[in-house]
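Example 3.2
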Amino acid sequence: MCPCGERGRGLRAIADGWACRWPGGRSGCGNRTRISRAPGYAARLAFVLVLFGLPAAWAAGVTLLLSEQGPAYTEAAEAFAARLGETRNLRILQLDALQERELQQLTREAGLLVPVGLKATRAVAQQASVQSAVLALMVPRSGFEAETWPAGLPRRRVSAVFIDQPPERSLHLIERLLPNARRLGVLYSPLSQPYLPPLNQEAHRRGLILRLADVSQTGGVAGGLRRVLTEADVLLLLPDAQVVNAGNVQHLLLTTYRYRVPVIGFSQSLVRAGAVAAVYSTPAQIGAQGGEIARRWLQGGGELPAPRHCDEYAIAYNHHVARSLGIRLPHATDPGGEP
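Structure, written as tokens:
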């Protein structure tokens, strides 16, 4: 299962997309953040996973709970540990290695519990007597907000760093690349419907008009795409496996190209597949921000900051598609080149 919690292949086969490596690799990104790793760090991380295969008493430390194995989780965990610094106060566990009673024990400890991915976050939220402070990482905002946390857990002891982007970043990128675009096509399903109110509000503030199509209605993605492309200047893809997945991504992008409608995606892998551009946060960026929050929590204890999007992000461009559509991409030195 990927960080967003979608089962099956979903976007996994798009190659490092919203699924297991969301938001993707690093090549071609002009403003990526590099995480410095000491030699053998991955080996030491694997050792920690084995060493702490079962939870033990953990007075007030930090526990990373990974949804599963995978490059995205390792990248996030490494960045988290590097930013936290106090590794003697850190242990790393994998959800699938824990029995139910061990998970119950884990959530009753007094420390900070950091589930990584929606699968681990849901498993923690479903525990009836959570006493740990909880900081969820690499979860979509809609998925996090849909969880019901135990009534006895104070709100300021539950927080998150989301994997998806606030709408202002994507819309600013569209304005930067396509200053004359005013009509934004958006395909959605019940999964991504929570994205629409803040997106519509931000679009209205910028004088942009949304052209919406619900792919759960008759005609599916193909029908919704045809309806939208006849009225849109640009297509904005939302992270929704019912809209874009391994089975339809090639057809979707080829269709938009034939209509000469540029696509703004949500991962670098979609840009490699044919989207003009995307703004996204890497697992390392999310992990590093989580590590900083945890470091401050260790110093001050008590409350966590409000749930938030990742402060850092990257932008990827497809230069070939942009040239074919006559779109001028900003240079790294251009003012306003970043959202």
